[in-house]
Structure to design on (116 residues):
């Protein structure tokens, strides 16, 4: 069975169509993706390579019911940084200000696959 998004709660939370009956457990990580419209063809063999997975984010299971689970974004944006000066010799210490990243335009029906 392919796991999919069944409901969008907000930009950071979605509901997947699998739960404890499908051996889903709290703390598992899943990749959210959609498949490209265009099939990718190998230029050397002319054989199909399949469809490109367009990644929309990674989430962690935070609540499990029998047939559905809640998945919350677990990716952090570390692009914004704060710098403070500290120490006896006025050394520069860099502190990373990481904020939670939302999923990128998740839609009902997007695919989910387990990742480590």
């Amino acid at each position: 069975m392919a796991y999919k998004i069944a409901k969008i709660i907000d930009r950071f939370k979605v509901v997947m169509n699998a739960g404890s009956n499908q051996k889903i457990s709290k703390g598992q990580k899943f990749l959210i993706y959609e498949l490209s419209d265009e099939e990718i063809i190998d230029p050397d063999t002319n054989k199909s390579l399949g469809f490109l997975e367009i990644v929309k984010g990674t989430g962690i299971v935070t609540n499990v019911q029998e047939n559905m689970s809640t998945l919350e974004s677990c990716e952090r944006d570390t692009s914004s940084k704060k710098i403070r000066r500290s120490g006896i010799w006025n050394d520069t210490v860099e502190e990373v200000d990481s904020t939670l990243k939302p999923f990128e335009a998740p839609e009902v029906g997007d695919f989910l696959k387990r990742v480590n």
